[in-house]
């Protein structure tokens, strides 16, 4: 497996959603460097924002009202440069695949043009009452596929088969 090469922020699709975050004191270790699990906390927040602001689906209502969960079942990261206290970063989720009961995301994290990290995330949909897998709801599937089509491919990045 080859290590992803950093790509500049400008290589991401113009139509892609971007969630801004500021790295705060409490996000960092004593050296002032972002403590790596916090990238995943930010990733989940970015996905909540994507749902509401771009997909038109209320993330909280889907969970609390509809009883459909969306949890990461795979989360891996490639860390290219450290994020530091005070940095303004953009998290850009790109939908890689929409399956029957899951969807895969490449989440690019940039400070300016510099890619700091890239997260490989797979989210499964579940019935929260039974904690069992369930198909991606039709409205979410349609919204994810629409967003994926609007974004198109990422320049300079291989698309997995």
Automatic annotation (TrEMBL):
InterPro entries: HotDog_dom_sf. This is Acyl-CoA thioesterase. CDD domains: 4HBT. It holds the Pfam family 4HBT_2.
């Amino acid at each position: 497996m080859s290590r992803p090469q950093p790509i500049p922020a400008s290589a991401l699709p113009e139509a892609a959603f971007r969630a801004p975050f500021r790295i705060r004191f409490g996000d960092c270790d004593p050296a002032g460097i972002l403590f790596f699990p916090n990238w995943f906390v930010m990733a989940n927040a970015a996905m909540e924002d994507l749902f509401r602001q771009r997909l038109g689906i209320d993330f909280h209502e889907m969970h609390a009202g509809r009883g459909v969960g969306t949890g990461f079942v795979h989360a891996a990261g490639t860390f290219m440069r450290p994020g530091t206290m005070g940095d303004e970063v953009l998290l850009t989720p790109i939908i890689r695949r929409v399956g029957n009961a899951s969807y895969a995301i490449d989440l690019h994290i940039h400070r300016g043009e510099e890619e700091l990290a890239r997260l490989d995330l797979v989210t499964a949909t579940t019935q929260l009452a039974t904690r069992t897998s369930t198909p991606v709801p039709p409205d979410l599937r349609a919204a994810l596929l629409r967003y994926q089509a609007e974004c198109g491919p990422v320049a300079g990045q291989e698309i997995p088969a």
